[in-house]
Predict the 3D structure of the following.
Amino acid sequence: MGKTLSEKILSEKSGTDARVGDIVIARVDLTFVQDTTGPLTIRQFKEVKHGRLDNPKQTAIFLDHAIPSPNRQLSNDHRFLRRFAEETDCLIFEGGSGICHQLVAELFANPGDIIVGADSHTVTAGGLGAFATGMGSSDIAVVFALGKTWFRVPETFKISISGRFQKWVGAKDLALHLIGVLGADGATYKALEFNGDAVAGMSISQRLTVANMAVEAGAKVGIFPSDDVTRKYLAAQGRGNKYRPLRPDIDANYKRSLIIDASELAPMVAMPHAVDNVTPANMLAGTKIDQVFIGTCTNGRLEDLATAAAILKNKKRHPSVRLIVAPASQQVLTKAMRIGYIQVLVAAGAVILPPGCAACLGLHQGVLGDNEVCLSTANRNFKGRMGNPEASIYLASPATAAASAITGEITDPRKVA
Amino acid sequence: MPDAILKGKAFKFGDNISTDHIIPGKYAHLRSDLPELAKHVMEDADPTFAEKVKPGDFIIAGKNFGLGSSREHAALVIKMAGVSAILAKSVARIFFRNAINQGLTVLICETDKIDAGNEIEVNLTTGVVTNLTNGIKLTSGKIPKVMLDILGEGGLIPYIIKHGDFEL
């Protein structure tokens, strides 16, 4: 019997013949924390008697959730994290560098790697063929100390994608559709493995978006095979030597198989307060919105800003809608300025926030008021997520978000663009 | 291992209680001040929970408890509230590991036969859950040995301090 991508990577990194259901100890290629999970992780790490990082160059701290810091407590957490980086010589990325998952994609993730981070959206790196998953502080503290952790080898759902996306329909719509089909716990403990003829036509940006949302169906990882698109991305990011072809075996065993025809997908929206509460955007026509947020580890990449800029070019945000945009990294921001996307967005009335998580998790930079409605390109719309349990969050693609910013209500981008 | 017999009152919640319900992201500035953070436990699911819960009580939930963020603070503040165990139909992956890593017992069982305020007894040795209010007995699902071992040491950090490594 052949192996899935997860079985292959876990076999290699554990030195065993890893099969579904096995518990294995596997070496980790990169482990990281961000500024809201890092302090607890480091305190726990300091309790472990080894007290020394297994490998400082495979250990990273990203300041992204609360930057620039909105209050003294978080400023002190940032000081604590910087001091730890100085003491241990681990990697640290200062506020404004970008969102951890985007930087992991730009700088670290390679096909066949195991990456674990103290952030649930660590799954994003699956877009590059890495076995990447989120864990809590205790688990990450132990990886800091030992460079390895335990995994149960997951069953895999094979998600085959065929056909071509319609114009203004893309990876986010695919992800929302898939979560609607699976349900918010439909893939709990499972691996999602993406396949099919449409995958070759998907950019790394799009793959990262789909992999990013695997956890919203409960999955442990969302993983793509590596191919020529992966090779070119890695080469462009200066690590072409890290490319390796990685595919599942043809006779691998899957728990479940799903087929999605991309050409049949419409712009999708997740309604409050659950990510699996999805419906086509045109069913929500007339739903008034107060804020549009374009950014996050799901949709803050250059392609996403390009899409938003294409729709907002020579247009203005609706007078009753605040439009906020946060590029996912400094690299994204720099390129978006050079090409002119940022200028278009500013001319349309957007507020540009520094590269980071921004309004996504309700800390600052776009907290919602009572009864307000936000249309966001993020990955979560749980009650209270954006800082106020009396507010509502709809999730959609950058195209739908940009179109809706113009009209002031949830709008199918095909009606505006 | 925690005491073999746990007894307490049921606090009932529905399906899909996320980490944002358990401890909202807006309180990230309190994560280095755990006693202050713990005052907000379950706030967006039941704002009265923190003042009503007593040591030994149970959180009884539907499916997919703890979905969302990896913040271990979610398991930590529930433990700090004195909750002796979480009983749920299913638990999200990261939260499950976090709870066990914090030494917080999680049992998977059919929770429809437990109502808010019921007196519950859990036998950790046999995995049997007894609703003392209505007399109904429930069996809980098995959890992997590695997790039982970690739970037995009171959490992952104490486990690693004691053993120095994973022992499978």
